[in-house]
Design a protein that fits this description.
single chain; 314 residues; seven-stranded mixed beta sheet; 7 helices; 19 strands; elongated
Length: 314
């Protein structure tokens, strides 16, 4: 089989989603002819979200997959070359930077924008996946609004879980925080606030065994939980379940080449998307574990493209 010649670009964007697509729009409009490489399912986490009500510019509710499609088409329309491939290795030690796809295609680039995102960790129950988007969510700031005056459960014990539980009390009438141990990992100040909140009940030493729900219309009606000490199983009536056991940034590819924090998020300079390697930029959830919103990811994608352009012109 004849090997495709190396594809060279001024800007190689790895990963799709709001950060990657926005970077592509700005880079293409700056006449940098970017190449964006995306996996089998482009669009990132938003493709698993149904109703989006907080993306600026839309008075009506829009669908996550539709929004990603629009961004993709916009990036294409202004001149981005889109390639479906999976980057399996990168070389950031020499210039131009190199990358190799699983297809065998080689890429070389004068600058790279990394927007590979993060994945929420799931419990990996069949029923949890079945009700994803129908009462099971990994994002309280995205979906809390849909549970006004309802009972919800949050699973987890770290800062994220405690913050999600507190945030949900703005909408839900009751929040049950389920944790597999008998103490939380979250910082003490947060724990204190949590304990003082009358709407929150903590269920210790417990894990979720199953999600229960209706088929038509599809929605969650309860969960089965198991006490890990007594092995007793009980059913809880809840209208929603929020999984808050952490996220994993997609950064394996850059191990030992780029600076990361201990959770694997890429570290960038202050008020910048530039990594510790000049010419390599990171945007979106791959470097942001605080906000994790489509609009902040898009904003960073714009920053990365503008910074890449400035880097190339110097």
């Amino acid at each position: 089989m004849k090997q495709n010649p190396t594809k060279h670009t001024k800007v190689l964007i790895i990963g799709s989603g709001p950060a990657g697509y926005t970077a592509a729009v700005y880079a293409a409009r700056a006449m940098l002819n970017p190449i964006l490489v995306h996996g089998m399912e482009p669009g990132g986490q938003l493709t698993t979200t149904t109703d989006v009500e907080n993306y600026p510019g839309f008075a009506e509710v829009i669908q996550g997959p539709w929004l990603m499609d629009q961004m993709k088409e916009q990036a294409k329309a202004v001149g981005t070359e889109m390639i479906e491939d999976h980057i399996s290795s990168v070389d950031l030690k020499s210039k131009p930077f190199g990358a190799v796809g699983e297809s065998g295609q080689k890429y070389s680039a004068d600058s790279i924008i990394i927007s590979t995102g993060a994945q929420a960790r799931w419990l990996n129950l069949k029923s949890e996946q079945e009700y994803r988007g129908f009462g099971v969510s990994a994002c309280a700031t995205c979906d809390g609004f849909f549970f006004k005056e309802k009972t919800v459960a949050v699973v987890g014990g770290g800062n994220a879980a405690v913050e999600e539980a507190m945030f949900l009390t703005k909408f839900a009438s009751k929040v049950k925080l389920i944790h597999r141990r008998n103490e939380l990992r979250a910082e003490k100040m947060l724990q204190k606030k949590l304990m003082e909140n009358k709407k929150i009940e903590i269920i210790w030493d417990s894990v979720i065994e199953d999600v229960i729900g209706d088929k038509d219309p599809k929605n969650v009606t309860g969960i089965k939980i198991k006490n890990v000490k007594s092995n007793k199983i009980e059913d809880l009536k809840v209208d929603g379940l929020f999984i808050a056991i952490g996220h994993d940034p997609a950064t394996q590819l850059f191990k030992d080449q780029l600076e990361m924090d201990r959770e694997g998020y890429l570290i960038t300079k202050s008020d910048s998307t530039e990594t510790n390697v000049p010419g390599v930029f990171a945007a979106g959830d791959v470097k942001d574990k605080i906000f994790r919103q489509a609009v902040t990811a898009a904003g960073m994608g714009c920053m990365a493209a503008l910074e890449a352009e400035k880097h190339l012109s110097s």
